[in-house]
Amino acid sequence: MALLQPVYSIILNQIYKLTGKIPYQIRYGIMFIWLIALEILLIIGYSTDFLAIKVSLNERAIAGGITLIIFCIFSIKGPLKRVQWSLGFSSIWFIFALLMLLSGFDHAVGDGYRLSGWIILLGFPCLAFIWNNRGDYEVLYRLVSKAICVVSVAYFLFCLIIQPEQASLDRYTGTIDNPNTLGLMAVSGIISASYLFTSTKNYRWIFSISFGTSVTLGVYSVSRNAIITILLLLIVISIYMCRVFKYKGYSIRVSIKRYILGVLGFTVISLLCIIIFGMGMSSEKNIVSAASLEPTKEINLAHWKSAAEVTADSAVGPEKNPLKERFTTEGKDLNSFSAGRVEIWKAYIQQLNLKGNDIKGSEFPIGDTSSKYLAAHNVYLEISYRSGIIAGLLFLIFVLIAAIKALCCLFRRKEYKEYDLFIIMAIGAYGCTSLFESLVHPFSRSIVFLFYLAVIPFLAKPSAIKKDRDA
Length: 471
Fold this sequence. Notes:
This protein is an all-alpha fold.
């Protein structure tokens, strides 16, 4: 990665001679508007059935690449100097990204995968180089968080007013094709709203509402992965705030008072959002009759039931509680409880190798059917299957190191930084959700994008950044 810095410096310093003349507020506004457009595009990409528009992963990767270019061009705040990378962490990133990219030239790795390799190999390190020079990571994190909050609240209101019809009667999806994706979108909204609430003094009531709307969408999605991640995030936020109160020298009485007020405020707002959304969902406009359900298409067995199965479930016996049904273990083995993931993981593990697999020719015998390529529902298995075991292990090590660094930010900080909570939540949430979802592409879902932004400060040695900035 160090070899890339002279190239970045020459190109970007020339660009800064032009962009430096543009007022920073305008540059900031351009980045903010583009981020909102990107978030909307990601929603559209997973609303194929509702909108009858298909946005491929390759097209999303292109949009993401343009996003990084825009950010790199308009983020430069002054002449860029050499940054001393953290050798171990940056080397693992570089080798993993290189293997991911090279595998795409050897065999078919899937839509958008090779382009994502370029983005991870060259795009994010360039952005990291710029922001490691700047050091004010909180500006970047606030910008991204605000865009996500705006889109999250707007999407909540859209679903409340329009009430899109549901393809699945037992789980809410909004316009999204998959309720688990809606749950991941809610997780990103909670990270963004929580960070903005704790790091700013103005407009906190807006961020509280954004938090409540995201919690509502997460609960209604009945995504176990998302709900468990949300609960873990709440624990992390509580620990972080308690430690910050202690760091600031607040008395125990003041700390408890602030904590209780914060918990009560978020709880009340979240409950209000859930109740309001529930009242909207109970209207006749949102009810779909069994006759209106079209025959199912070829779908992922790990996510969906057929329309006939859903109709039969709702027609027999008392009304079921989807949340209770999803979390109960009664009458289920491990594979059933995991929605078929255990069986899928076994099928993947049996086909792992050093080189990676051509996914166009892949077939996975799941149960009594022979299904074509299915997602691994685990990012490390997904990468190992496509790009080889070494690439998968390297990425696993990379995430583990990032998680350890995030935990150090939470428990071992002598001086808390304003952006610490964003890093802790983004890395923690990605670590949890990536165990059960194939979150490979940086611009497939917001949670992946947040993860790659969160690890940027860890790519450079803090002492080197401080020395360069003070020079």
